[in-house]
Amino acid sequence: MTVVGPFGLSVRDQALEADVQTGLAAVESGLLDATKSEVPFITEAAQHLVRAGGKRFRPLLVMLAAQFGDPDAPGVVPSAVVVELTHLATLYHDDVMDEAEVRRGVPSANARWGNSLAVLTGDFLFARASHILADLGPEAVRIQAEAFERLVTGQILETAGPRDGRDPVEHYLDVLRGKTGSLVAVSCRFGAMMSGADERVTDVLTQYGERLGVAFQLADDVLDIASDSHESGKTPGTDLREGIATLPVLRLQEQASAHGLPEDLELVELLAGDLTDDARHAEALARLRVHSALEQARRDTVRYAQEARAMLAALPECTARAALEELCDAVVHRAG
């Protein structure tokens, strides 16, 4: 049994292990090639997060989905590079919007070089992803464009907030389906499609990916509250400080509205205030960590992971399917 990929995914089949390891190594090489520029500074900025590491969650999904066809097909590795470049580009932009100071255990690009250069570096990565996509054919370009539209729409909806009368929790889950679920779904879709897998299999894996992506982001929401910076690679409570209401906060607001307990209402008021103050931020984080709303958010994470796992029942039993099932468990474990 060998551990590969994010979360310590254990692969018990030597052939699958070899394919995944070889594929991920090729993706790593492809990422470095794709982020090189004739301008040394651009190379440094573009490779800043590549070299910082990361889980390579999306490329792993491409490799596992490709097992349902020919994993050595020529489009598999380039499509994995595309989805990871796209993901990295969004991180540069997200850190600017969030005014984040740390990403993957290193100073964020905006903290190091300023907002303008961070945004432009993200744009550079999008351009390089598009260049690779052009060689994968018009269908791949269309799929990526649709996913990117959903991703940006999700970000806009998050910024705008729910319209009047809309349940904030349902609005937020819609945001996550776009912001995170869309690109994870494309990872699975590209892996299956590029490998020549059956169209029915490709559809199942795409639906699995979207649900797993939502579970993955919900686990991040929980970690942002529950973990320290050593575990998560970024500053805990970043979303709280920026006034972004993730699922634990939305579940707290829901409980406070339904039951009107004084301590819940007091915590909601604290969270709605100025959390740029370190003492207020620390108090809010500590109180939310022991609140039942955090446990409810964990249960939501489990539900989406279970939905993702249930999708896989339509696929033939094989080691790749078992690995995809284990990823569902791993996502839940992160939020545990």
UniProtKB/TrEMBL annotation:
Protein name, UniProt field: Heptaprenyl diphosphate synthase
Coiled coil: none
PANTHER family, alphabetized: ALL TRANS-POLYPRENYL-DIPHOSPHATE SYNTHASE PDSS1, GERANYLGERANYL PYROPHOSPHATE SYNTHASE
Cofactors named for this entry: Mg(2+)
Matching PROSITE patterns: POLYPRENYL_SYNTHASE_2
Pfam families found in the cross-reference section: polyprenyl_synt
Keyword annotations of the record: Magnesium, Metal-binding, Transferase
Entry-linked InterPro entries: Isoprenoid_synthase_dom_sf, Polyprenyl_synt, Polyprenyl_synt_CS
One GO term (biological process): isoprenoid biosynthetic process
Family to which the UniProt record says this protein belongs: Belongs to the FPP/GGPP synthase family.
GO molecular function, one term: metal ion binding
